[in-house]
Amino acid sequence: MIAQMTKYSFILLNGQQKGLLEQLQELGLVDITRTAKQVDEASERLSSEVELLDGLIQGLKKIELPEDIEPEAFDGDIVRLTGGLLSRYTKDAADIAELRKKVEGLRVWGHFDPEILQKLSDAGVPVHFHSLSNKLFKADWAKEYALAVIGQDKNNTWFVVAGEDGLPGLLPTPEGDAAALEASLTTQEAHFKTVQRRVAGAKERLPELEALRREAYAKLDLYLAGQAAVPAAEDTIVTLVGYATTETDDAVTRALDASGVFYFKEAAVVEDNPPISLRNNWFVRQFEVLTDMYGRPAYDGFDPTPFISVFFLLFFAFCMGDCGYGLLLIGIGLLLRKVDSFKDMAPLVVLLGIGTTVIGFLFHTFFSMDISTWSIFAPVKWMFLPGKIAGYDGTMVLSIVVGIVHLCLAMCVKTYEETKNKGFAGALGTWGWTLLIVGGVIVGSLALTGVLDKDLTKWIVIVLGVVSALGIFVFNDPKRNKLANVGVGLWDTYNTATGLLGDVLSYLRLYALGLAGSMLGMAFNNIGSMVLGDGSNALLWVPFLLIVVIGHTLNIAMAILGAFVHPLRLNFLEFFKNSGYEARGRNFNPLSK
């Protein structure tokens, strides 16, 4: 949910703002309205310092050193020394790679004297160097040309020809001597070991660089907050505006009262455009990253994360649809907890794995095998989704049903939000559509299940239709002319009728993606089984395992991609459009260290 905000307005003598901002930075609870962009030379310098430290940290982390490299400790300015080391490492690594390439190119030709080649060329007998595949090389060429084969492997043949020739595979004359270049390479590699040891020593001081980076960012943040001060009374005083969550009012007020600063405190309103802080439980909080991909809600809007948490998890599990893949995801998530750069995402991966395992079990699929035929699951077979529902594929029907529920929930949310913000009278048009569609779905479901008889259903539909029509065509805007309301209602009817069907059908992608993944996995299983045969030949188990493991690895990789993108689309487009969600908020970013 969206946390309530308190607005703090500060009035200070010009020059006092720095002391106040430093106190607020220590407190770490107040978001001072400020820009995140550079505003002058000082902020540009501080921003460059942050970027430099970021580059050094990322540069060190990207370097992978051999395990036998012993770190070489060094003292001094870590920033200057690390910058020099990274430059030297990059240059030496590129030079060694280039030298190795030259050595490999010369090694096949062996040792030769470039001066002799030049003398032969001056005498009219140039020596040409060639390389061809064994299929194209013809030994009979030696009868026509002064040709000597220098080297040959299973793929290529290297040869030289003295005198003019028109043979294919001509190469530039090699420059240098292989033995000399190899000696130079050995020397450079020995020196590179020293550089690597120093880089290893710099890696051990990464925490020091990260602390400097945090300190530099805190200085930049503090400076930008100071630049947000608005001068008044001929620069005698300045004003600042900040926001803090209402639940921290007591702590913020105590700190401000102790500082002696003059301030006003009031509840934030929509017109203030306060920052948005989300307050959710542990489960929902794992999905806030998805909400932030689209944008934070407006202050008078609603937090979509609770809805995303349930339906994204459900849709992802539908698209994967395999409890074996779900178990693998749980294992991957547990392993990610040990990787610093991914440990924040580990709980989300584990949750997606659990959801996939549960849905995959209900779909009775384990690595694309139908477990409903296994005797071990006979006692729980009643839990499995039936293959057919009303004559249609069970998974397809369930996808449509879940989609309808998702859209109906979106309409209910939109109705609630509009009623809250505009009042009941201002939301009558939305109420009309919600009663017609959501009410119609509920009545239709009760009628199909036999809860309502035909006569009662008929009268409920008539009442729903009349009440909905009044809201849609007559009272959709009480302040507008009734004829204009009818015209707007007709236009809304056209858009809703054409758009809603497409929205519902969009949920078929859940069925299609799950089916595609299942069929592809089944194909790999069948190919592996064909290779294995009856299993009597132990040697055939090796290709069988290779086919199945590699096949399912490729399948799960593609399935995860689709299972992430398409559920995200269903939430961002279908749900957000029908719920009226607007991402107009900015993230709550308290001034802190």
Short description, anyone?
With 593 residues, the protein is of the alpha+beta class.
Percentage of β-strand residues: 5-15%
Taking the sheet with the most strands, its summary is:
5 strands, antiparallel
Question: Which word captures the global form?
Answer: extended
Helicity, as a percent range? 55-70%
* Class by alpha and beta content: alpha+beta
Query: What number is the mean pLDDT?
Result: 86
Query: What is the helix tally?
Result: 18
Number of domains: 5
Total number of strands? 13
Q: Report how far apart the termini are.
A: 26 Å
Poorly predicted tracts of residues: none
From the alpha carbons, calculate the radius of gyration and give it in angstroms: 36 Å
Description:
The protein is an alpha+beta fold and 593 residues long. The protein folds into 5 domains: 1-33 and 228-277, Alpha-Beta Plaits, CATH 3.30.70; 36-104 and 179-224, no CATH class; 112-176, no CATH class; 282-390 and 508-579, no CATH class; 396-506, no CATH class. The protein contains 18 helices and 13 strands. The strands form 4 sheets. Strands 1, 2, 7, 8 and 9 form a 5-stranded antiparallel beta sheet that branches. Strands 4-5-3-6 form a 4-stranded antiparallel beta sheet. A hairpin with a 4-residue loop joins strand 7 (230-232) and strand 8. The relative contact order is 0.12. The model has no long low-confidence stretch (mean pLDDT 86).
Task: Give me the secondary-structure topology.
Layout: E1 5-13, H1 17-27, E2 31-32, H2 41-62, H3 78-107, H4 114-122, E3 127-133, E4 146-152, E5 156-162, E6 170-171, H5 178-203, H6 206-227, E7 230-232, E8 237-245, H7 249-259, E9 262-267, H8 282-285, H9 288-294, H10 305-320, H11 323-336, H12 346-362, E10 365-366, E11 369-370, E12 388-389, E13 392-393, H13 394-426, H14 428-448, H15 454-474, H16 482-506, H17 508-532, H18 541-579
Antiparallel strand pairs: 1-8, 1-9, 2-8, 3-5, 3-6, 4-5, 7-8, 10-11, 12-13
Helix pairs in contact: 1-6, 2-3, 2-6, 3-5, 10-12, 10-17, 10-18, 11-12, 13-14, 13-16, 13-17, 13-18, 14-15, 17-18
